[in-house]
Amino acid sequence: MKNYHQAPAAVVMIRPHHFCPNPQTAADNAFQKRHQAPVDGDIKSKALAQVDTAAEILARHGVKVILFDDETRTTPDSVFPNNWFSTHENGAVGIYPMYCENRRRERREDILAQLGREYRVRQTFDYARFESQGLFLEGTGAMVLDHINRIAYAVKSKRMSDWLLNHFCRDFNYQAVAFHASDENNVDVYHTNVLMCIGTGFVMIGSELIKDGGERRRVMQNLQLGGREVIELTLAQIRQFAGNALELATAQGNILAISQTAFNSLNPEQISRIEKYVRIVPLDVSTIELAGGSIRCMLAGIHLPRKSESLAG
């Protein structure tokens, strides 16, 4: 059986022409800036420019970036495609049910069709139908996947149904590790991928947000499987999106895509520990971060085999 890889070498990114913080997501996203916006009112052009610059920098480092435009005015969060689909090395694709109604319009057949032309897609698991039952699982925002050890970590929230998480794990051969996490005001963390980042040889996590001791021990024990080094993040760093990063594979070695905001929050010791495993690539996505997500949310990793490659078992 082929070994699974943690870091994808290709990503999908969306160029949003009408970006703005989504009013429908503000109720349960404590990371979203409800009353903050650039005073010049030029948020749309700034967001688009930041996507283009980030895509250019990642491509320059050797990451394959597949760009799609979103010119509609009805999908303010389309810049975060990792929430509505995921791809896997065995040729499977997952399509996910979204909590907020206007986010459901982000799902696009043209993106899936383009991936199908370039990559081997063996099977599609479409969970979107569960929206009508009030069940949600917002992709690799709601789940942080340890592809190597086959563990799906998921914070309990309105955007993550335990039943659907277990359904996903049966379909994709993962073990579910679900847990509670909240900030100092006991507000639930809305997406797991703002709390933790799993790389090939290291993990970054704000474990202090997991208040239950038993749940914290279970999470930490699982994260250390395979000898991964665990790098603790503070609540303040989590608020600066330090957990919202993604390791990517390149021919010159793996990199860590992280926002400039997040990078600025790290201390020298943390940076040194991370750099044992990856080259850090900070990206300015500060305008997009007004919407409550950062660079990891903007990157839908492509784990599918190219048509010339064999499928993982």
Describe the SSE topology:
Blueprint: E1 10-16, H1 43-60, E2 64-70, E3 85-87, E4 92-95, H2 109-118, E5 123-126, H3 139-142, E6 143-146, E7 151-155, H4 162-172, E8 175-179, E9 196-198, E10 202-205, H5 213-223, E11 229-232, H6 235-239, E12 246-248, E13 255-259, H7 260-265, H8 268-274, E14 279-283, H9 295-298, E15 300-302
Parallel strand pairs: 1-2, 4-5, 7-8, 10-11, 13-14
Antiparallel strand pairs: 1-15, 3-4, 6-7, 9-10, 12-13
Number of helix segments? 9
**Span from first to last CA?**
5 Å
Largest sheet: 3 strands, mixed
What is the level-2 CATH architecture name?
5-stranded Propeller
Give me the count of strands: 15
The helix/strand order is EHEEEHEHEEHEEEHEHEEHHEHE
Low-confidence stretches: 34-40
> Any idea what the radius of gyration is?
18 Å
Structural class: alpha/beta
The average pLDDT value, as a whole number, equals 92
- CATH first level: Alpha Beta
Q: What's the helical proportion of residues?
A: 10-25%
Which features characterize this protein?
313 residues, alpha/beta, L-arginine/glycine Amidinotransferase, Chain A, three-stranded mixed β-sheet, 9 helices, 15 strands, Amdntrnsf_FN0238
Account of the protein in words:
With 313 residues, this protein is an alpha/beta fold. Helices cover 24% and strands 21% of the residues. The strands form 5 sheets. The protein has a 3-stranded mixed beta sheet with strand order 2-1-15. The chain has a 3-stranded mixed beta sheet with strand order 3-4-5, covered by helices on one side. It has a 3-stranded mixed beta sheet with strand order 6-7-8, sandwiched between helices. Mean pLDDT is 92; it is low at 34-40.
